[in-house]
Amino acid sequence: MPRYSFSLFISAIFFFAIINWSCSKIDTTSIGQDLIPAVDNVTTFADTLEINATQGVFFDTTRISSTDNHTLGCITNDPVFGTTKADVFVELKPPFFPYYFGNAGDTIDPVVNPAPNTSGFDSLVLCLSFKGLYGDTTMKHRFNVFKIDKDATDFRNFSYKLDYQPVTAESIGSAEFLPTDVKNIIRFPGSRKDTVTNQLRIKLDQSFLSEFVASLDTSAGSTSIFRSDSLYKNLLRGFAIKTGELDKSNALFYVDLNSPNTRLEVHYKKRRNAILDTAFSSFYFSTTSSASVSSSGHANYLKRDSSQSEFIKSPSADALYLQTGPGTYATLKIPRLTNFPNSIIHKAEIIIEQIPASTTVLADLDKVLAPPQYLYIDLLDTISPVSYKPIYYDLNPTVHYNPDNSLFFFPTGGVDFGYFGGYVQKKNNALGNSIYYYSFNISRYVQNLVTKRTSNYTLRLYAPHNLTYYNNVFAFKNSLANGRIKVGSGSNINYKLRLRIVYSKI
Asked: Is the dihedral of CA 304, 310, 315, 321 positive or negative?
C-alpha cells in the first residue's frame, strides 16, 4: 500500500472513531453537544420511532433491610392510583442487661405518677426519627401503637417482605398530629439543653408504664424484665405502629430506625443525696448482638389497593401509570430498531411526558403526590430462564460492565444519571403549561444494535426502590412508595412516548 494511502486510511479510522465516540452524546449533557451535527436531511437525519407500550403491575417481592428508611402512614385520597397503607414494626431495647435506671447512688421508686416530692416514673414515649415526607402536609394523621404478641410471632432481625405483619396484642398508645408538627423543637422538662426535633413522638398509656416498671430488682433469680434479654421479651416482643387511616390523610412518613432519635424514652424522677431531679433513659434499636443483648427485629408492612382507582377501573387507552415500587411498570418495544439501516448514531433518546390532570382537583393532587424522582430502564432477556438485566453500555460510559456476566453485570459506582438520564425534569407543553418529563440516552445501545445486529430487546420502564439482578439486591435512588405519574403511551397524540434518533447513513 502506498504511504499516502496508508495515511489516509489511518486518518479515516481516526475520523470515524471520533464520530462514533461523539454519537452517544445527548442534549442533557454538556460534553459533546457541539459534536452532534446539525440535521440537514442530506447527510444527517432525524427520525421519531414508534414505541409500543404495555402496562404492568409488580407482584412485589421487595424486602426491607434495617438500614432502609421505613415507611409509615396512608394515602386515602388518590382516585388515579388508589390507596396505600404502611405500618412499622420495631423492637427497642436497653443497651445492656441486667439494666438499671439512672446512675450509681440514684434512688428511683417503682411507682407511676409519683407525688411532687417523690421519685418514680412519669411517662413512656415512643420516638421515631423523621427523615422525610411524601404527600399532603395539611391533613392530620393518627398512629396507634400495639404490643407485638410474644406468643404468636417469631419476630426477629430479618429482612422481611413488605407483606409481612407480626401478630399484635393490646393497644398501648396513640397520637394525632400534622406532618409539620414533627419539625417542632421539643424541650425536656427540667433541662435547659436537652431538645429534639424531626421526631414522631407517641406517649404510651400509663397502664403499660405500670406494667413496664413493676419490678426493678435485677438480682440473681429475679423475674424482672430488666434482668435479661429473654425476660424483657416476655413482656415486650416489639412495638407495632399502625396508621389510623383518618379521612383525607394523604402522606407517607419516612423514619430511620438506626438513628439515635428512634428510641423508647423512659422519663422519671430520681433522688440522690436528698436532691430530686428529672431524667430520662433511652432504649434503642439494636443493630448487632452483644453478650447480653440480641439484635432487634424490624419490619415494614406496605399495601397498595388500586381496585377502585382510574388505573384499574377506567384507564386511559393512551396512558401509562407509573408508581414507585412496590408499584407498576411498562414494557416497551421499538420494532423499527430491528431493521434500522447501518448508521452512525449521533443521538438516541427515549422521551416520556406527563399527561396533565384533566380537572383542577386532580391537578392539585398531582402537586402533593409528586412524580418519582427517577425512572429506570432495563432489558427483558427471554433466553431461559426469563429475567431482566441492565441495559448495555449507557448506564455509565466511563466504566466497563457486562450485563451477561453475573459478577460484573453493573457498573461500579452505579448509574451516571447525568449521562443516562431518567431523572424528573420540567418543561412547558404546547399550551404553555408546565409538565414533568423524563429522557433516557440509549445511543450506545442503539449503535451496537444497528451495527452488530444484536437483539432488539423488550425494555422495562419503572420507578424502582431497589434493583435486583442475579439474586443481588441493591438500593436505587427512590424512597419506598415515593412517587406516581401518569404519562403518555406510544399512541398518545399530544404526549407521545417515543424514541428520537439522530443519525448519519453509512
From this structure: negative
Q: Is 27 a residue whose pLDDT tops 80?
A: no
Q: Using CA atoms, how far apart are residues 486 and 322, in angstroms rounded to an integer?
A: 6
Same domain assignment for residues 249 and 335: no
Torsion, CA 335, CA 339, CA 343, CA 345, rounded to 10 = 20
**Closest listed residue to residue 463, CA positions, set 54, 58, 52:** 58
18 within domain boundaries: no
Q: Are strands 484-488 and 83-90 parallel, antiparallel or unpaired?
A: unpaired
**4 within some domain:** no
* Spatial contact of 484 and 372, defined as CB atoms under 8 Å apart: yes
What are the tens digits of pLDDT across the range 284-322?
999 988 999 999 999 999 999 999 999 999 999 999 999
Residues 278 and 331 in one domain: no
* Residue 313 included in any domain: no
Q: Which of 106, 120, 103, 99 is nearest to 224 (CA)?
A: 99
Domain tally, the chain: 2
Number of CB atoms found within 10 A of residue 105's CB: 9
Alpha helices in 80-239 (DSSP H): 206-212, 229-235
CB atoms within 10 A of CB 332: 23
What is the C-alpha to C-alpha distance for residues 281 and 329, in angstroms, rounded to an integer?
47
Give the end of a domain, one of 277, 305, 333: 305
Query: Residue 118: which domain range?
Result: 70-305
Give the other-Cβ count within 10 Å of 9's Cβ.
11
Global pTM value: 0.88
Residues 290 and 414 in one domain: no
SS3 499: strand
